[in-house]
Specification:
Blueprint: E1 2-7, H1 10-22, E2 25-30, E3 46-49, E4 64-67, H2 76-81, E5 87-88, H3 90-97, E6 102-107, H4 112-123, E7 130-134, H5 140-146, E8 153-157, H6 160-164, E9 173-176, H7 184-187, H8 190-198, E10 209-213, H9 217-222, E11 229-234, E12 241-244, E13 247-250, E14 253-257, H10 266-281, H11 286-293, E15 304-309, E16 312-316, H12 323-330, E17 337-341, E18 360-365, H13 370-376, E19 381-382, H14 386-396, E20 402-405, H15 418-432
Parallel strand pairs: 1-2, 1-4, 2-3, 4-5, 6-8, 6-9, 7-8, 9-10, 10-11, 11-12, 16-20, 17-18, 17-20, 18-19
Antiparallel strand pairs: 12-13, 13-14, 15-16
Helix pairs in contact: 1-3, 1-5, 3-5, 4-10, 4-11
Length: 434
């Protein structure tokens, strides 16, 4: 019987264990915390270590090692095993099990979730089933396990941590939406972070297509000599896929009118361009694409309009965990913006925000990065938490203003994730109406 080590529980850990068991593996399953094992998993051939990964696993002899992206590469047991094994993630394991799927893979620093969600929306109601997987949606291993013999289109969001664990994965079509410094606390430098993103393209060849953002200098530095077919896209200049007078064209063929989009901002036009092109490459008719575009309302926590109360508009952009995302949000508004920013520190610089000071009527900062932001913006109001920041913003706001939660920081200082932070903001808005 083949043997595997799986590090990490949660949804992806459960999914890959289930998939490996279906392939007759004997599994060692370990985590420093609880595995949260799902009740349908037969543990007959599973050895479990919870609340502490034993150092003795460094000497294990197995056929494959799989790691949840949430467990860092520098974990002492993982780092030791990495000297002898490639450390896979569940996406690669699932790909090897279900190569018959068509994969549209999307990564980048910002915009991944909106683009993947829109692609999924455009693929819906087609004859071929489609699923969202990866960083959002279901773990790919779950889809592979449940639909092994099925043809399907997969809209796949991949974080850099997930790409690090890919060795065999080969998408049919892929893109890197944009690049800016992020996760420097994990990668110890932006070059290693960018290199991680480009690992996605390793196995692509002339049978696969890369959508290349020629507006992004970092992408262009690294994407000059590729083995795949290339479709260049731009919102600022003529390219294969381009924007002109509020209309998007592919090689001079009209695709869609940007005025039909319910989501706003130039960044969302770019996201829509990519999603539309991918949907077309996966076989969706232009008529269906154009009709579906008109009904996509965006994604929660991504520049989400929560409500307008007494002439004040409230927007939840909790997913903005770096300064570039916050700049994108600020550029989406012509109205005065009261910005709520701050959170946990990823060792990135916030200097970029100073170039957009004219966009900010008032800045209220909170959380771990509040002192860093206060140093850059002397007039910023520093408070302890989001509730205090929200109350101060409401106190300062006038009719016609926008109160924008776009933290430019991760959430882990005070929250489990950015979703929890966004939901608190939504609750605070809703409470104003009571």
């Amino acid at each position: 019987m083949k043997k595997a080590i799986v590090f990490g529980g949660a949804r992806s850990g459960n999914a890959v264990v289930r998939l490996l068991l279906a392939q007759d593996y004997e599994i060692i399953w370990a985590d420093d915390s609880s595995l949260n094992i799902e009740s349908d998993i037969d543990l007959t051939h599973v050895t479990i270590f919870e609340h502490g990964i034993p150092l003795t696993l460094r000497d294990a002899r197995v056929d494959i090692v799989v790691k949840n992206p949430g467990i860092p590469d520098y974990h002492p047991v993982v780092a030791w095993l990495a000297q002898r094994y490639f450390i896979y993630n569940e996406v690669d394991v699932a790909f090897l099990y279900a190569k018959q799927f068509q994969y549209a893979a999307i990564t980048g620093t910002n915009g991944k979730t909106t683009t993947v969600s829109l692609l999924h929306h455009l693929l819906s109601d087609e004859e071929i089933p489609n699923y969202v997987a990866g960083n959002i949606g279901l773990p790919l291993s779950t889809i592979a396990y449940e639909h092994k013999d099925e043809k399907a289109n997969i809209a796949l969001e991949l974080s850099s941590f997930q790409i690090d664990g890919l060795l065999f994965f080969k998408p049919n079509v892929a893109t890197i939406l944009n690049l800016s410094p992020d996760h420097i606390d994990r990668y110890l430098g932006e070059k290693r972070y960018y290199d991680s993103k480009f690992r996605l393209l390793t196995n692509m060849d002339n049978n696969s297509i890369f959508l290349r953002n020629i507006d992004d200098q970092e992408i262009m530095k690294r994407a000059r000599y590729l083995k795949s077919q290339i479709i260049d896209f731009s919102v600022t200049q003529k390219a294969d896929l381009y924007l002109e007078n509020d209309k998007v064209f592919y090689k001079d063929r009209f695709l869609f009118d940007t005025n039909d989009l319910l989501v706003k901002g130039v960044h969302n036009i770019q996201n829509a361009m990519v999603a539309v092109m991918m949907a077309s490459l996966l076989g969706v008719s232009l008529e269906n694409i154009q009709n579906k575009l008109k009904t996509f309302k965006g994604v929660i926590h991504r520049l989400e309009h929560v409500d307008t109360i007494d002439g004040i508009s409230f927007f939840n952009d909790s997913k903005a965990t770096n300064p570039e995302s916050t700049v994108t949000a600020l550029n989406s508004f012509d109205q005065p913006v009261i910005l709520l920013a701050g959170g946990s520190n990823k060792n990135i610089t916030y200097d970029l925000l100073t170039f957009y000071q004219s966009k900010i009527k008032e800045l209220v900062v909170f959380g771990e990065t509040a002192p860093l932001l206060k140093k850059l913006f002397e007039d910023a109001i520093e408070v302890e938490n989001l509730t205090q920041a929200f109350n101060k913003a409401v106190e300062l706001a006038q009719e016609g203003d926008v109160i924008l939660l776009s933290p430019a920081s991760a959430s882990f200082d005070q929250y489990q994730n950015f979703e929890q932070r966004g939901l608190e903001f939504i609750e605070l808005v809703n409470n104003l109406k009571k």
